[in-house]
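Hi there, hope your week has been kind to you so far. No rush at all, and the record is pasted right below.
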Amino acid sequence: MNNSRIAFIGAGNMANSLIRGLVAKGVPAGNISACDIDSVKLAELQSECGICTGSMEEVANSADVLLLAVKPQVMAQVCATLRSLLPATGTLIISIAAGIPLKSMEQWLGPQQALVRCMPNTPALVLEGATGLFANANTSSAQRDLAEAILSAVGISRWLATENDINAVTALSGSGPAYYFLLMEAMEQAAVKLGLEPEMARALTIQTALGAAKLAASSDVAPDELRRRVTSPNGTTQAALEQFEREDFRGLVERAVTAAQKRSVELAG
């Protein structure tokens, strides 16, 4: 990865996070370039990270990897411009645009291009992202490794068995941070109703979520076992969990995630 020339088409929040993650992982800043219609974003990245900036034509011409981080509604136009700039083969193209299937990318860029579609999530902004990836048949094993290394600069990456699995990843980890934010919001509100000051309720809620996630990430057992270990018979935790179960908490979560997956399929269509 350190010897590859990586160009970002679009320099929004996700691209910004990836660029900073790559530099932090030791990728030479001189091997990273970016273009964007927002000159202020580019100037900030150039000043703070030392990367190269320029027009789409300038950054695309010498790139081994093109990471497309533009809005889905302008992707077709961007690809039409890029198609005339790219060699017939050799360039790896990674798209982080939601809802754009590989068949559309192949139509816009040419069927011979090596393409990877991925779905990162917003915790990538703090280098704790979760990304699902899927590659087309033109992508070599070396290019797959390169794509995985790039996305792993901001968290974890996992290859998917089918492109349709991206819809499930969207429902799970793409939209998932909002589910946790909603739970945190509800816990904070409940604590305030029980008498805690809002600032204290928020601080304790956030630290509890952070600690639980770290504990789960560092443990060698599954979350269900961690739940059992913290639940004393006839204790406070059991009382709360029994209320969750009576209210069909698991069913509610399943229905919510399924609704997100269904909407992802609709948007892709």
In short: The chain has two domains: 6-166, 176-268. The first strand starts at residue 6 and ends at 9.
